[in-house]
Amino acid sequence: MYLYGTQTVNEKGHLTIGGVDTVDLAHIYGTPLLVYDIALFKERAAAFQETFKKAGIQAQVAYASKAFSSIAIYEVAAQLGLSLDVVSGGELHTAVAANFPREKIHFHGNNKSYTELQYAFDEKIGCIVLDNFHEIEMIKEISEARKEKMNVLLRVTPGVHASTHDYITTGQEDSKFGFDLKNGQTDDAFLKLHNHPYIQLLGMHCHIGSQIFETEAFRLAAEALMTKMVEWRQKFKFTCSVLNLGGGFGIRYTAEDEPLHPSKYVEEMESTVLSMARTYNYPLPEIWIEPGRSLVGDAGTTIYTIGSTKEVPNIRTYVSVDGGMSDNIRPALYGAKYSAASANRMLDPHSDKVTIAGKCCESGDKLIEEAFIAQPVEGDLLAIFCTGAYTYSMASNYNRLPKPAIVFCEDGQHQLVVRRETYEDIIRLDIPLQKIGREQSK
Q1: Residue 436 reports pLDDT greater than 70
Q2: Which of 12, 44, 122, 215 falls between 20 and 30 A from 343, CA-CA?
Q3: CATH number, span 108-291
Q4: pLDDT tens digits, residue range 315-334?
Q5: Which parts of the sequence belong to the Orn/DAP/Arg decarboxylase 2 N-terminal domain (predicted)?
Q6: Backbone dihedral region for residue 99 (phi beyond 0: left; psi -120 to 50: alpha; all else: beta)
Q7: Is 144 annotated as a binding residue?
Q8: Which of the following is catalytic: 127, 206, 360, 361?
C-alpha cells in the first residue's frame, strides 16, 4: 500500500489526510467525498517553481485547471503565484469569480466561440492560445473593432509521439489541436499575425499528451519548436519571447507507475532550450509550463461507503460503492487504473481480491478490476487514491446521481469547498411540460 503526501494511519487504524481522520470527514460530509491534500498541491507547485529559479530562467508555471476547476483551488493557485490555464468560458468565469489575477490567465481550447473570445478581451486576460485559422480571424476582428491589444501564442503540433494512451496524446500530426509544424500551417498562421497592430504574438505553445513518464518526448518537442523559432528569426527578424511546452507529467496511480520528480521534466526542457539558444545565439525565451494532473492528481482521494457484495463463484467478487462512473469516468472511458484501501480498517490485512463496482446502470461501471482490501463489510469506507485530476471535472449526473462534496485538508483543519449536490440541484433546470405550454401561449 502506497500512501501519498500527508496521508498517514492513526492509532485507530483510520486513514488520515492533512492530519484529519477520513472517518470523521465521512461522518461530517457524507460519501462519496473527494478529499484534497492541499499541502501536497503546494509542495508540487513549489517543486516546479524552484527548478526554474535555480536555473535562473524566467518562467511561468500555469495550473492546467481542466484537471480540477473550482473557486477554492484557483484561490490557492493565486496565493502560490501560479498562472492559470483555462479552456472555456466556464473556467474563465470561475477564475473571475475567484478574482484570479487576469494578467496570469491563459485561454486555451480548440473551438473557442466568438463570445468566449470577447469575454477574454472584456477581462483583459494575459494571453490567448490560438488553435486554428478560424480563431485567428475572430481575434483579428475583435481586436480591430475594439482597438484593443491581446497577447497570443500559437499552439502547434510538433509531430512528437508520446508514450501514453491514444485518448490523451495530443502532439502528433493527426490531432484536433493546433497548427501542424511540418506541413506549413504554423508558418501560415505566423504570417497572418506578424506585424498586426493589435495582436502581440509572444511565441509558440505545444502539449504532447498526458501521463507521460519519460523525458525524451519533451526534449524532442522543445527542439522542434526552438528550430522553428530560429527559422522565424532568420527569415522575418522576429524573436519569440515565450516558449510554452505544456504539461502532461505523469503521476503514480498504482505501484506499476514510476513517475519522475517534477524537476526532472523541467530540467530536460531547460537544458534543451538553453543549449539551442547558445548554439544559435538566440535570446533565451521565457519558458511556460502547464502542470495539471501532476499538481492535483495524487493530492485527491475519494472516500466511498461500501454497500452490497456479490460473489460470482470461481470468477470474481463484486464490492459495490455509493459512487462510480458518475464521479469518476476515467476507468470506463480509457481503462485508467487506481489503487484502494479500507479507510476505516487500514491496519487489517488487505488480502481480499475484489472488483470495485459503482452503482451506475452500466456493466462497465467498475472503478478497479482487481483491488486488495480488508474483508468487505457493508458500511466500511473505501479510499481510492489519486483521484484529484479529471474526476470531478469530468463528473456527470448519469442516473441522476448527485455530484460529491469536496473538502480541502491541511494542518489538521478541513474546509468544505464544493457542497454536495442535492436532488433539488439535479432538477433545478428542468421545466415541467405544462409550463412550456403556458410560455408558448403567451
Answers
A1: no
A2: 44
A3: 3.20.20.10
A4: 999 999 999 999 999 999 99
A5: 42-296
A6: left
A7: no
A8: 361
